Every structure is written in C-alpha cells, then in structure tokens.
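As a point of orientation, let us examine one representative protein, giving the amino acid sequence and backbone structure tokens.
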Amino acid sequence: MTKILSQEEIDSLLTSVSNGDDADIQTKRGGSKVSLYDFKRPNLISKDQMRLLENIHEGLARNFGVYLSAQLRMIVDMNLLAIDQIMYSEFVMSIVSPGAIYVGDFSGPKSKFVLEVSPQLVVFIVERLFGGKGHLIPMVRPISVIEQRIMSRVVERIAYEISKNWEQLKQFDTVVNRFESNPEFVQIVSASEPVIVVSMEAKIHNNTSMLNICYPYRWISSILSSPENQEKVLFGAREGTDKEKYTLMKSVSVTPVSLRAVLGKGKISINDFMELNKGDVILLDGRTREKVSVFAENRLVYTGSVGQSNQNNAIRIHNVITGDEGHEKRRLQHKIK
C-alpha cells in the first residue's frame, strides 16, 4: 500500500532539497569533480592559444599605458583584465549607449574590429590634453565632434600598438575609419558569430575605466591556425637567426655601463658626520692591500687592486665573479649591511 506523506514530512523533504543535502550526498558518493560545459558554446580557443593572446595584449596594455601617462602627464596604470569568447550579439548588448565605439580594419587577413572606450575615459583624456585637471564624470553623455577629433590621435596610437604587438604572429596594418555612439549601428559580423573580447582597465587616481577590443573569431583563427604560428603555440618562439643575434649583440655592445669600485665602508654617528671638516680622516673597514670590489650597475662582477695608469686612478682586474660565487659574496655583503 502506498504511504501518504504528512504535511510535516513534505515540508521536511522540500527543505532538504532546497538546502542541497541531496546534492551533497551524491557528491560524496561519486567522489569526482564535475565541471560545467556548454555544448552550444564550445571553447574555440585552446589554453596554449589563450596564453599567447594574453602575452600579446599584456604588452599592448603596458605600452599604451606608458604612452597615455606621457600624454596626460600623470600615472596611468593599464592592466589586462580578461579575454573572453562570446557571441557578437552579447558584446553589442554589453555596450552602454551613448558610447565611444571605433570601428577599424585589418589589412591582412582583411577583417574588421571594434574598439570600445568608456565615455568617461574619453572626456578625461580630452580634458587633460587641453590642460585641465581632468575628472571622471559620473554621468554618461554623448561625445562631441571636437572630442572625437581630439581623441582620434589617441585611438590611432591604440591601433598602432595593436599591429605592433601582433607582429610576432602576423604583420598587418591597422586603421580606424569611423566612430559610432550607438552600438546598434556597429555590425562587423553576424549576431550569432563568436568573437574574442579583450578587456583592459585604466586606473587613474584610484578610479577605473574600461577599454574593450573585439576581434572576430574567424580572423584570430586564420592567424593562429597557420603552421608557423602553430609551432609557436606548441613549442614557443623559435630560436633567433644569426642576423637577429648579430643585431642584438651590436646593440648591447654599445650600451654604456657604469662601473664603481668600493674601497671600503665605515660607520660614524650623526654628530661626527655633522662635525666633519676638510682634512679629517674616516677609517674604513678594508686594508690597503686587500682587493677591492668592482660593481657594474650595482652588481658585483670583479675584484681588483687600486693603482695608477697614465697619471689617472685605475683598477687592475684580478678575478671575475660569476655564478654561485658572485651570488654568495653579494649575499654576505647584503647581510653585513
């Protein structure tokens, strides 16, 4: 005979289901971790490809942050937030209207892209370029024609940084050709096509503002699927050619390096320091016959002896400090300090 549950038993059963007791029991029985997967929206970008895209856009954010700091004469911290794969319709719906939307073209393979900048950031940049203090307005308003023309120079720099940071995979030209304030008028691919959205944030005076770049997935796939780029994704960058090594060594060989020799160290009190006069002698911890330490850019690299050459003070190099020996000596010197 079927048992009829009382109201108390029904309430108790509903409470246990709402609290997830049944789910906890099933998890404990199975003992395996379950992860969600959307078959309607499969992940088209692999982890290795995503890592490569992150490296590209971290460099883009860093370079553009340096440029913006110099133009605005203040510190602007640009950081890469996320790289997401979504539908183009979702990206359009996420844009606030009126916005600051720039549509550009890639030369090869030919494609379009969308650059969306926060209107608050546009107003702030324009105000700083005209010599104002700059402030992030709380209300979103349309960008005027004058502000669009002033901002075009900054947007051209972003386009340049995009093509520059993609050079390791593909060389192409990037051109921004139109501005839109209504996201409904921006249609670079069909609404159901997947796109890759790169989100970056700009930190100014403890205020954050957003900047998004939308790439069609077909364009990114055409670049990442080439054989030479597949090799970079799987095995990293290739070894430099002889010409590249020669160019690098030539550049490094003419780089100036500051050398300094430390004869010794001493400690005196603040009172003695204030009373120092011409002719006073400060006692150092080193002996006159001991070898002195020679530093290159604050790094211990040689030991030598002090002397003269052509009536100039000079140091004769006796030993080259390399490897573990140099690390140990630097550690001991730091400990003595």
User: Anything to note?
Assistant: The mean pLDDT is 81.
